[in-house]
Amino acid sequence: VQLQASGGGLVQAGASLTLSCAASGGTFRRYTVGWFRQAPGKEREFVSVVRWTGSTSYADSVKGRFTVSRDNAKNMVYLRMNSLKPEDTAVYYCAASSRSIYSTDASAGAYDYWGQGTQVTVSS
């Protein structure tokens, strides 16, 4: 499966953005899709996941501010980011796996396919 993330940009603190992850190939409805981010000089970190069952999880740092959703008919996953903070600045990646990874889906190593990333910059 091929993934393409988009929707990043430069915004002020407190603003909102919606990232999109477009998937092609594979049976998308059976894929677990995660969002990760990587800030300069830092390791890639888990942001959110939407499982093939529709269940979701979030990193504590974004809980209550970010919402992940999927539209299987359109092969799309979205990450709605509200109340953005400067510390949310990073390159955001979407990733997918068709395997059963529930116990490890907050780990980047659990995913087989990655998009190219989209830059989100939040100014103070």
Protein architecture, described:
- The protein is an all-beta fold.
- Helix content is 0%, strand content 49%.
- The chain contains no helices and 11 strands.
- Strands 2, 4, 5, 6, 9, 10 and 11 form a 7-stranded mixed beta sheet that branches.
Report strand %.
over 45%
Runs in which pLDDT lies below 50 for 5 or more consecutive residues are: none
Measured between the Cα atoms of the first and last residue, the distance is 37 Å
Find the structural class using helix and strand composition.
mainly beta
Give the overall form: globular
Q: Rounded to an integer, what's the Rg over CA atoms?
A: 13 Å
Helix content percent band: under 10%
- What profile does the largest beta sheet have? 7 strands, mixed
Mean pLDDT: 95
Number of strands: 11
Number of helices: 0
What's the helix-strand series?
Answer: EEEEEEEEEEE
Q: How is this structure best summarized?
A:
By secondary structure, this protein is mainly beta.
Question: Can you give keywords for this protein?
Answer:
single chain, 124 residues, mainly beta, seven-stranded mixed sheet, four-stranded antiparallel sheet, 0% helix
Task: Give the secondary structure arrangement, pairings included.
Blueprint: E1 2-6, E2 9-12, E3 17-24, E4 32-38, E5 45-50, E6 56-58, E7 66-71, E8 76-81, E9 90-97, E10 113-114, E11 118-123
Parallel strand pairs: 2-11
Antiparallel strand pairs: 1-3, 3-8, 4-5, 4-9, 5-6, 7-8, 9-10, 9-11
